[in-house]
Structure formats: structure tokens, C-alpha cells
UniProtKB/TrEMBL annotation:
It is an enzyme of class 2 (transferase). Residues 72-306 form the Nitrate/nitrite sensing protein domain. Its EC number is 2.7.13.3. It comes from Streptomyces maoxianensis. Residues 532-639 form the Histidine kinase/HSP90-like ATPase domain. The chain crosses the membrane at residues 28-48, 321-341. Signal peptide: none annotated. It catalyses: ATP + protein L-histidine = ADP + protein N-phospho-L-histidine. The keyword Acetylation does not apply. PANTHER family: SENSOR PROTEIN CREC. This is histidine kinase.
């Protein structure tokens, strides 16, 4: 069941790794990036909100400028309406004043158009104001009707009032979001604009009534409605205005002109029955004009307050925007600094541990093992103390301690292995020497018996026993070679021919009858190398005999190659794969220790060790044959230091002369 569960878990798809998750620096960066991104998102929302407030403040400031400019145009239209209504009512003395006022109205219209074209307010407000200018443009027809003397008082008054109401409604700007004082100020400004329009409308309508001397038709009802609207807008203003703004309005209604106008209004109230009203239109106009101008000044004062408020809101939004941006930059810098410091605080100790571990693996352990292996018997094999990583976090200290424990354990194991190898080598060497001594005595006795024996059959058996003892001696010498010991001194003075060396090697193998010395060119080998070269050849020949069919011979070739001399041992066996050839050549070249190899390859290590001592090169290659037979050929290249060139050249000269 557990096995099935493990199989199920192993088949589960792996989650995709995060970018940078493969390194500690990347993981620290990812861990810190998540809260940093959240903080930056919050900061970004604050930046967006403050940016919206700043933009709204600027837009409100632009709206206020348009509102005040629209109120200037409204003021001029109100004056033109009142004068025109008086003129239509019969007061011809207003003729010149009407012409002058029309010019002032056109000038205010031109300035308003220029400000509207410059932008600065919201698109909706600008569009509403452009639409509101259509009734103003239509007043040109009303002016022509007045000039022609065909105008009537009520329609003319209604046309001007429609144009003025449209401008006042379109100029009602919305305040900046969430700012109550600014909203109240804008509401108070709008309420005062409506109240001022009611006062101006009363001025214009009564101007015509006083010029005509009485109310006609529904003019008295219109008069009462206008007064009711004025009172309603003034109450709305008092609810929204500040104490200073309320005081300014109270002061406007407390002037002598305002009190005088109030007296004229009371007289007008007595003319509800259509009786004649004895009020000078000029005095009424001048008194009410002063009041209307005072109300416009209060409007401009409120507009200045609104502009100041929007400026403060914009400045506050700018400072807060800068603060949020600075906070975002600070968060980013701190996050990067923390990521760098955290990564360095982790990676530096780890890199130090990695460097120490690499140093131990590359130099420390090999040096300790070499020192242990070179120690003499009886020396105390104590590991050298290793470097310590500077104090760091508790986890790194534990990791460093664990690495040091691993190092000490490895050195301890190396010490045990070195002792074991040394004991093994000494045992092999001792066993090999003992066998050598016994076999030498045995060969001596066999030689004596061979000399004394005259029976051919017994003599043949002695020869077989001699051959067997010779092979046993070679095996004992192989033990000494594997143990790293020098072979017993069996040197020849002078030089020995290559054929004699080959024959000596053949004499040390079991199936020597299958070995054919096919073509061995003349060559002279120095006597100091004969024993080891003969041993090397015997190992290769016996290996070829073992791995080739009994019906196939093993062939020996020898030839000169410049100053070197080469030998080849050729078999026609089953052959070897490319991988097996590569492993075997690595063993022959000394690139692999015999302690990790199977026992059937010990002959390769003996050959490799002897080749290294002689300075020769041994390599296995596939046998190249015309019949396509498989097999392996062992090539031995002897260096020029082992070949007597003078003897070889002399032999060549004699051969040529004899020929």
C-alpha cells in the first residue's frame, strides 16, 4: 500500500517553479516582493486618489473662473434687461443708457467666450455653458424689435430672463469630491446668484411698471413671485454660507440705497389694484442698481473664497501626492535593500561553507589521504583541524558543524582505508615474497631433478612441473606488482633480442602451444627491462588465450617504428564492445584503481603498472582481419630508451650484407 501511495505521489504533476526560485537570492526576492507589491499597490491607490483630488481641485478652480465670468455676463444682461424694460415701458430717457449697456454686454460676452475657449473646466460644464449662450445670441432679434418700437414689455422681459436663467443654471459647478466646506461655498454661490437674479429681475420689472405708472395684467403677480423666490434663495444662502459670508450679505442689504429700494417696494405693494404709482423710475433704478452691485461683490468675495479653498485643496493634494510617491519610492528602496542584505546574509555564509567544502574536497581531503598513506607504520594518523566559518545564524553554525563532522568522518574513513590498504599491500607483498622464495627453491629442485632424470616420460613430467612453477612464480610477481613492490632482481647484462623476450613470455603461459610468433622483426631490448617486459607480454598473451577459441592461435608481431619498438598480441576471439575497450584502456593507462575493479580485471592493472614503470604504452583495439573475424589486438609501444639502436642497426647491416 505504501509503495502504491508513493507511486501515486510520484505521478502527480509538479507545480511550476516561480521565476528565480532556483537560487536563494531569487527566493528572498520573491518572498519580499509579495508584501512589497501589496504595499506599492496600496500606495498606488493613494497616489491615484490624491491625483484625482488634485485634478478635481484644478477643474473646480477652472469652473469657478467660468462661473464668475458668467456672472459678469449675467450682471450686464440684467442691467440691459432692466434698462430695456424701462425703455419699452415709456421712459425714453433710457435710450442712450440702453445703447451703452448693449456695448458693455457684448464686451462681457467676448471675454466669456475667450475664457470658455481656453478650457480649464470640465467638458460637461463647458458644453452646458455653450448651450446656454444660444438664448443670449437670440437677444439680437429682441434688440431689433425694441429699436423698431414694436416690442412689448412682457415678452421682452421674458426673453432676457430666459437667457439669464440659462447662464445661471449652466454655471452651477460641482465641488471637489468629499470636501464639505467647498461644497457649501459652491452652494452658497449658486443660491446668491439666484437671489441676485431675483433682485435684478425685480429691478427690471418694476422699472417698467414705474415708467408706465401702474401694474398691468399679471405684472403684480409676477412681482410677488419674484420676491418670494428672492426670500427662498436668501434662506438657502443663509444655511450654506459661513458667518463672514452672511455678514457680507447683511451689510449689502443694510445700505441706504437698499433701504430706499425697500421703501419703493412697499409703495409698489399698494398698487395691486392697478392704481397709479408715483415713483421716479430713475431713483428706483439707481437704488436697486447699487444693491445689485453689492450682491455681485458678495458673489465675487465668495468666488475668491472658493478659489482659495480649491488652491489649498490642490496644494494639499500635491503634497500628499508627493508624499505617496516618496513613500512608494522609499518602500521600493527599503525592499530592495532588505532583499540584498537578506540575500547576502544568507549567501555569504553559504558561499563560505561551499568554498570550504570545495577546498576540503579538492585539496584538504586528498592531502590528508596522501599524508595518511605516506605515514610509516606506527605513526599516529590524526586529522588536521579545519578552518571555521565565522559566526553567523544558528542554522549556518549547525551546517558548518555538520560539514566539519562530515570532513572528520571522511578523514577517519580514509585513515581506516589507508591502514587497510597498507596492511593489504604489506600482506600481498609478504605473501608474494614468500611464494617467490618457495618457488625459487622449487624451481631449483626441479632443475636438479631434470639434470638427474634419464627417463623421457619422467623428464617430460618434470618439464610440465617446471612450466607450472614458472606460471606460479609469475602470479607471485603479479601480487608484488599490485602491492607496489619492485620485482625480484632478474636482470640481464647487455641486450636481449625481441624474439627471446617473446619466447620468455610464452614460456610463462599455460597454453603456449597455441601461441604463434608470426613476424617479429629484429630488435634489441636492454637487459634491465627484460623481466618486466616479459611479465607484461605474458599477461597479455594469457588474456588473449583465455578469451579466444581453442581452435584459433594467438599471434605475436613485432616491428620497428623509428627509434621505438612495437609489439602486437592478436587474438581471434569474441571481441569487446566500444565501452568495454574504453574501460579496459583506462585501466591499462592507470586512470582507474584496481581496488574498485572485479578480480577478473586484475591482469589489466598488472599490465598498466608494468607499462608505467617501463614508460611504455599499451592499448587494446579491435582486431583488423581480412576474413572479418572478431577479436582484440593488444599494442605495446616501447620507448627508445629501452631499445638498443646501435645493436639493431648493426643487425640490419649484417642482414643486408648477407643478402
Amino acid at each position: 500500500m505504501i509503495r502504491n501511495l508513493r507511486g501515486t505521489l510520484s505521478r502527480q504533476p509538479a507545480l511550476p517553479a516561480l521565476p528565480g526560485w532556483g537560487t536563494i537570492r531569487g527566493r528572498v526576492a520573491v518572498v519580499l516582493a509579495v508584501p512589497t507589491c501589496l504595499l506599492l499597490v496600496v500606495t498606488g491607490l493613494g497616489v491615484v486618489d490624491r491625483g484625482a483630488d488634485w485634478s478635481a481641485a484644478r477643474e473646480t478652480a477652472g469652473r469657478v473662473e467660468l462661473v464668475l465670468k458668467a456672472q459678469d455676463l449675467v450682471r450686464e444682461l440684467q442691467r440691459e434687461r432692466g434698462l430695456t424694460n424701462g425703455l419699452v415701458g415709456g421712459a425714453e430717457e433710457y435710450r442712450d443708457d440702453v445703447d451703452v449697456q448693449r456695448a458693455r454686454t457684448d464686451t462681457a460676452r467676448t471675454g466669456f467666450d475667450a475664457l470658455l475657449a481656453a478650457g480649464g473646466a470640465g467638458a460637461d460644464t463647458a458644453d452646458d455653458l455653450r448651450d446656454a449662450l444660444s438664448p443670449v445670441a437670440a437677444l439680437a432679434d429682441v434688440r431689433r424689435t425694441v429699436d423698431d418700437g414694436a416690442a412689448q414689455r412682457a415678452p421682452t422681459l421674458a426673453a432676457y430672463t430666459e437667457a439669464i436663467d440659462g447662464l445661471i443654471s449652466a454655471a452651477a459647478a460641482e465641488p471637489a469630491r468629499g470636501d464639505r466646506p467647498l461644497a457649501n461655498a459652491m452652494g452658497a454661490l449658486q443660491a446668491l446668484a439666484r437671489a441676485t437674479e431675483a433682485v435684478a429681475l425685480e429691478r427690471g420689472s418694476l422699472n417698467g411698471v414705474f415708467a408706465a405708472g401702474r401694474f398691468k395684467g399679471s405684472e403684480f403677480l409676477d412681482f410677488t413671485e419674484v420676491r418670494a423666490d428672492r426670500l427662498a434663495f436668501l434662506r438657502q444662502y443663509s444655511e450654506l454660507a459661513t458667518s463672514a459670508q452672511q455678514s457680507a450679505l447683511t451689510a449689502a442689504f443694510a445700505t441706504s440705497d437698499a433701504r430706499r429700494a425697500d421703501g419703493y417696494e412697499k409703495r409698489a405693494e399698494g398698487g395691486a389694484d392697478g392704481s397709479r404709482l408715483a415713483v421716479d423710475p430713475g431713483r428706483w433704478w439707481s437704488s436697486m442698481t447699487v444693491l445689485v452691485d453689492q450682491l455681485h461683490r458678495v458673489q465675487r468675495q465668495i468666488g475668491a473664497d472658493v478659489r482659495g479653498r480649491t488652491d489649498r485643496i490642490g496644494d494639499d493634494a500635491t503634497r500628499q501626492l508627493g508624499g505617496f510617491i516618496g513613500l512608494g519610492v522609499l518602500i521600493l528602496v527599503v525592499a530592495i535593500a532588505l532583499a540584498v542584505l537578506s540575500a547576502r546574509s544568507i549567501t555569504r555564509p553559504l558561499m563560505a561553507l561551499a568554498d570550504e567544502a570545495d577546498s576540503v574536497a579538492r585539496t584538504g581531503l586528498p592531502a590528508a589521504v596522501a599524508r595518511i598513506q605516506e605515514a610509516e607504520a606506527g605513526d599516529e594518523l590524526v586529522p588536521e583541524p579545519t578552518r571555521r566559518v565565522p559566526d553567523s545564524a544558528r542554522e549556518f553554525t549547525r551546517l558548518a558543524t555538520a560539514l566539519h563532522n562530515v570532513e572528520h568522518t571522511a578523514i577517519g574513513l580514509a585513515t581506516e582505508q589507508a591502514v587497510l590498504r597498507r596492511n593489504t599491500s604489506e600482506s600481498l607483498a609478504s605473501l608474494g615474497r614468500r611464494n617467490q622464495a618457495l618457488l625459487s627453491r622449487q624451481l631449483g629442485l626441479i632443475t636438479v631433478l631434470e639434470r638427474q632424470e634419464i627417463d623421457p616420460d619422467a623428464l617430460g613430467e618434470l618439464f610440465e612441473l617446471d612450466h607450472l612453477a614458472t606460471r606460479m612464480r609469475r602470479n607471485a610477481e603479479s601480487l608484488l606488482v599490485l602491492a607496489g613492490e619492485e620485482l625480484p632482481p632478474r636482470t640481464w647484462s647487455g641486450v636481449v633480442t625481441a624474439t627471446e623476450v617473446v619466447q620468455s613470455a610464452i614460456a610463462e603461459v599455460e597454453q603456449y602451444q597455441r601461441v604463434a610468433v608470426t613476424d617479429v622483426q629484429d630488435g634489441r631490448i636492454r637487459g634491465r627491462a627484460v623481466a618486466e617486459l616479459s611479465h607484461l607480454l605474458a599477461e597479455l598473451i594469457e588474456n588473449a588465450l583465455v578469451f579466444s577459441p581453442p581452435s584459433y592461435p594467438v599471434e605475436i608481431y613485432g616491428w620497428r617504428d623509428g627509434g621505438d619498438y612495437c609489439l602486437a598480441v592478436v587474438d581471434r576471439g569474441s571481441g569487446m564492445t566500444d565501452e568495454e575497450l574504453a574501460r579496459s584502456n583506462a585501466r591499462l593507462a592507470g586512470r582507474e584503481t584496481f581496488l574498485i575493479a572485479p578480480t577478473r580485471y586484475l591482469g589489466h592493472y598488472v599490465v598498466g603498472t608494468l607499462a608505467a614503470r617501463l614508460g611504455a604504452q599499451v592499448e587494446l583495439r579491435p582486431t583488423q582481419g581480412q576474413d572479418g573475424a572478431a577479436g582484440v589486438t593488444a599494442y605495446i609501444a616501447l620507448p627508445a630508451t629501452l631499445v638498443d639502436v646501435s645493436q639493431t642497426q648493426s643487425a640490419q647491416t649484417q642482414s643486408v650484407t648477407a643478402g
